[in-house]
Amino acid sequence: MAQADDIRNYCLETYVKPSRLRGDKGVFIPVADVHKNLHLSDRYPAVSAALGSNIFEDEANIRRIHVDGPINGVSTIFAYLFIMIEKGEYLLTKVYTFVILYI
User: Do 69 and 44 form a contact (C-beta atoms < 8 A)?
Assistant: First the structure.
């Protein structure tokens, strides 16, 4: 399995699926946390590329609505909305604003 596949699978299992189970409307994925938890070394651009890919969005049935921070940086956070209407979840039609809360 390619590194990008590992990154996407990790994010799907660790961030997307639990968020859906909680009933959230979307999910935030911090690049630094993914990088650290997968024990990567200087692979921030690879994490950003995997999270920014259409493949990830299609596999997870989500749509990226915002990227906060430099695209290949340590502090980058990806924001997504869920779009699976066939399972009674959320439909992304128009997004006017999305508030990012910093902890």
Answer: no
Rounded distance, CA 72 to CA 9, Å?
19
Find all residues with CB under 8 Å of 63, minimum gap 6, and list them.
Answer: 57, 80, 81, 83, 92
Query: Model's pTM, two decimal places?
Result: 0.80
- Which residue's entry shows tokens 């009933």? 23
**63 near 81, Cβ under 8 Å?**
yes
2-11, 47-56, 67-76: least confidently modelled range: 67-76
d(CA 9, CA 98): 25
- Strand, coil or helix: 39: coil
Mean pLDDT computed over every residue of the chain: 84
The torsion angle over the Cα atoms of residues 88, 92, 97 and 103, rounded to 10 degrees, is 50
Contact 48, 71 (CB under 8 A): yes
The token pair that represents 73 in the structure block: 């940086």
